[in-house]
Amino acid sequence: MHAEVIVIGLGAAGSYAAWKLAEAGAGVIGLEADDLVHTRGAYSGESRLFRAAYHEGAEYVPLLLESREEWLRLQQAGRRRILHETGVLSIGSVDAPQMARVRRSLKHAGVTHEVLSSDALRRRYPQHSLITDEIGVLDLMGGVLRPEAAVSEIQRRATLEGADLRGNQRVGGLTEERGHVRVDLEGGETLTAHRAIVSAGVHTPTLLPHLAPHLAIRPIGLTWFCPEAPEDFTPDRFPAFIRDLRDTHIFGAPALDGALVKAGYDARFGTIGRPADLAAELTREQRRGLAADVHRLLAGLPPHVARESMHMDIYTADKRPVLGPVSERVVVGTGYSGHGFKLTPAFGNALAAFATGRKQRHDLSPFSPRRFGS
Ligand SMILES: Cc1cc2nc3c(=O)[nH]c(=O)nc-3n(C[C@H](O)[C@H](O)[C@H](O)COP(=O)(O)OP(=O)(O)OC[C@H]3O[C@@H](n4cnc5c(N)ncnc54)[C@H](O)[C@@H]3O)c2cc1C
């Protein structure tokens, strides 16, 4: 069977690319190793932060603005809640370089925001127990994305546009041949396409081994706590947050289900060699340490983890994504380094444009796979 484009891996960006390709009239087959929506993707786990306060670099700003607009459009056109516009509160010491970078990036991008002194922060958000001279910066364009709903909605739209999305079809390998790329499924079937997009998350190094030296898999444990006063942690009273102390970096989201508040560490659990090495749960020591840290910073959350799940994402050394062609017929989108979900629309559009040779909307050269020299 032949397609114009085959998308390998239907996480958020892969699904988005399939949708945009189908919308533009291309014949697309999307292949997903797991069920079409599942719990083992780098997108899984109830929520992802969207922030416009992006100290990671000015090159992300146009991609963030495009993505936010498209998330809201996707939400309006469908029946699913995709973005809770709670704002995102960055908290850190008044003289922390991180806070200066956050403020600079908001100013640079023209994002509506508020700077809260320690006193104002204490008054407005007493849920955060301040330890030092911490201040807050509230990014009013930020919020909380619902990843499973988003992936479902993107796939629904892709299918409506004619994309052929297939679950439980693991790709074993791909080979560029004269005039096409051959995609071999583990079940024995072979498909061909004019171009292929590899969007296989932590499994990308298996399909594109030459990228393996530039990619590392990091486990990220998600944890939820059961607040004593749930009414203090609802989305209208408790924005998503990122908090940086010298030795502790935590992030979290309000109680989206009215009961459990997400709070935990950013990737802090080292790296693993293969996806199969992911531990099923945190160790007792990791869980205790994390719960104690969360309770120290948010006294209304008891020091017991009420829910937990383990995930992983694939990182580059500079934490920039890897986006673009790796050969004449193969395009890759990977290395989103723990911060790629919010940019799904921009990345999906970019992958679709690479696969059809259309002009890119933004300068994506900082993300090119060519920076590795391969
Ligand atoms: C716990 C956690 C918290 C995060 N928090 C945030 C956040 O707050 N904000 C933010 O913006 N980003 C966040 N991120 C990052 C973001 O979620 C990821 O960068 C992004 O979802 C990665 O998408 P992906 O498409 O590369 O991978 P995935 O979502 O894993 O998708 C890849 C898909 O490919 C499939 N696949 C793999 N191999 C094959 C194969 N051989 N054949 C067919 N299919 C295959 C997989 O089954 C999977 O469905 C977080 C990540 C994690 C893990």
Written overview of the protein:
A hairpin with a 4-residue loop joins strand 14 (240-244) and strand 15 (249-253). This protein has two domains: 2-44 and 148-209 and 319-372, FAD/NAD(P)-binding domain; 93-144 and 216-315, D-Amino Acid Oxidase, Chain A, domain 2 (2-Layer Sandwich), CATH 3.30.9. It has 374 residues and is an alpha+beta fold. The chain has helices at 12-23, 61-77, 97-109, 118-124, 147-160, 204-207, 284-297, 344-356, and strands spanning 2-8, 28-31, 48-50, 83-84, 88-93, 113-116, 134-139, 143-145, 164-166, 171-177, 180-185, 190-198, 216-225, 240-244, 249-253, 261-265, 307-315, 322-325, 330-334. The chain is globular. Flavin-adenine dinucleotide is lined by residues 8-14, 31-34, 41-43, 45, 48-49, 170-171, 199-201, 203, 207, 220, 222, 311-313, 334, 336, 338-342.
